[in-house]
Amino acid sequence: MTAVATYLDHNAGAPIRPAAVEAMVAALAIGGNPSSVHRAGRLARRVIEEARDSVAALCGAESSEVIFTSGGTEANNLALLGAVRGGLAARLLVSGIEHDSVRAAAAGASVPVTVLPVDSEGLIDLAALDRLLSAGEGPALVSVMLANNETGVIQPVAEVARVARGHGALVHSDAVQALGKTALDFPALDVDMMSVSAHKIGGPAGVGALVKRAGIDLVPLSLGGGQEYGRRPGTENLAGIAGFGAAAKAAATRRDLAPLRDRLERELLAALPGARVFGAGAPRVDNTSCIGLAGVRAETQVVALDLAGVSIGAGAACSSGKVRPSPVLTAMGESEETARSAIRVSLGWNSEAADVDRFLSAYIEFAGRALKARAVRGEKETHHG
Ligand code: PLP
Prior knowledge:
The chain has 13 helices and 13 strands. It is α/β, with parallel strands linked by helices and 385 residues long. The longest helix has 32 residues, at 353-384. The termini are far apart. The mean pLDDT is 94. It binds pyridoxal-5'-phosphate. The site of pyridoxal-5'-phosphate (PLP) has 14 residues, from helix 3. The site of pyridoxal-5'-phosphate has 14 residues, from helix 3.
């Protein structure tokens, strides 16, 4: 299969960066086990530790705080389940717009879970957090994502941490969609744990990390050897980690995508006054647009754009191909119907002005047709009704 002409679905998975491929091929050629003391083992160990340094630098963290995992999903599970199993948390408070991997991990943690509300822009309600933390008993862990995968809205995580600290609660933030898109400063965020993933920044899928403050004594999810500071047993995914490191290094010189994204939204809204951009009134990462076209199903929009050679995402998370109304938008108070009409356009490291042009011309042409067809249908229904 050849690469698609215009790929604007970086939040689902970014195309792999050439530097990551190169690092992975080199790592595969080493072939040793990083725990071995011989030369191949030492070489492999060096690759891992260099990657750890690069990932830590992109997170503004210490290398010793980075635990490699199989991705963002595992990092989120390790944070929540590891804290509960380690006796660090007897209740969980998670925002209503978290990724499935946080929601499902919380639901499976066998402790009380409180869902934190967000406002119509998708921002967490800090007063409600304060109130809900007061209302419960026992040590709490608060999990609030840094940037939302569908809208790009950035949460005031440092403020969340300030409120949580007032109640002695631990804080985790899923920063999978923030890594490489906004400057991360782990100590300044003041969270205890933060999840990141390689394939959103041009690294390979299947590798990520939990960045964890020293002294947070998590119980590992699986049992085995002492790899990754005893928190993630199993021989390390050497090639994956090498690819993550190379992608992190490349992502350190961040591209400002705001001008491209802002033009996309400006021109789209000018051509289609009925369209909406969700979360536009809140701080957002500069690569993401969540767009609603009332009455036109997201999957119809995605398929039409695909036929025009443009890949975008359905705002409704479609982790297994199934499309359901976006829980993020319904948590923001939108109707199910509106949530079913949301698409996500997400730019990334290789996006260019020409990609935005191709998207705009394909989308505006399609939307014009779809809206006209809808109007004709409506007229017929009026006559017949
Ligand atoms: N968290 C967020 C916000 C995401 O967008 C994703 C990926 O879609 C994940 C976690 C899961 O990461 P991974 O695919 O590496 O398991």
